[in-house]
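Encode chain A's predicted structure.
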Amino acid sequence: MTNSNPERTVEEQISAMETRLERLETDSRETASLFIDGLRALSEQTTNLANGIDRLTQRVDALTTNQQSLQATVSQLATFMVQIARTSTDNQTEIRRIWEYLLRQSGNGNQP
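Encoded structure for chain A:
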């Protein structure tokens, strides 16, 4: 195989190399562009997740505060119920004492 025009072959090789380099450059730019777009999307999703976590944390804090308030209210109600039970027992005792007194005074609980 004789090469009648060796300069042409070198020029063709250089031209082919330039074409490949241009394709590689285009592919690299496209890949970099996709990578940057992906990073932007990931950054946006991360920001959205962080905001969601902040909102969730605020809601959990509010629920915790409400639960503590509810526990305090239930504790107060329990204290009131104990006081009511004591008052009821005291009232029943006082009513019985008065009834017995009336029975002793008149001999008949129906007439004072």
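The helical segments are 6-106.
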